[in-house]
Amino acid sequence: RKMFNLVVLIDLKKAFDTVDHQILLNKLELYGIKGQALTLLKSYLTNRNQKCQIKNSFSSERLIKCGVPQGSILGPLFFLLYINDLPHCLNKTKPQLFADDTNLTASANSMTDLETAVNSDLENLRKWLIANKLSLNVAKTEFMLIGSKPMIKNISDSCPNVYIENIQIKQVHECKTLGVTIDQHLSWKSNTENICKKVTAGISAIRRIKPFVDQDTLILIYNTIVRPYFDYCCE
């Protein structure tokens, strides 16, 4: 379609640790969790205390005022429900949400329209984050243009200026999202090189222990430390 494409890679500061309990409970009630179920979840979230241990010494207890319990089964689910309404604040970009990894994608017929659309929704996102007491790590938030080599070359002198919180976001030529390296031409070259390095290291380790273990053990090790690199994101 010969459109200009852009992706913004959002980085949230300590996303799981800054979830506001009352806002979360309000959203749970909005989603239909009421009565004793809501009371139980409120008891689970609030009045939690934590302390640190160094050898046989303990610190004093501190009340946990925000955040969801990490390492728990409910923690990730609570966070997903907390950000479930984020897409409603966006009008011109499409969000891709996976836990605290959030990407915004946009397409437009001109670079000016693309810049306007992205900056407009980043302002909407800023307001949503404030309302939900979450913080953006602007220094780690990046954007990347996506297109063919001729297209990227033609617009090299007119790249968009992308801002949030009045701070210009850094442009990158490749990024890593959910463990996959993506470049601006979608060539998958960098991702393939990364996989080859990891596979080579795994095979080298197997070769070193080969004289000391049987074939079944070698196959088990291969399926554990090598094959996952081939299987990940291949479907």
UniProtKB/TrEMBL annotation:
UniProt-listed PROSITE patterns: RT_POL
Taxonomy, superkingdom: Eukaryota
PANTHER family: REVERSE TRANSCRIPTASE DOMAIN-CONTAINING PROTEIN
Protein's name according to its UniProt entry: Uncharacterized protein
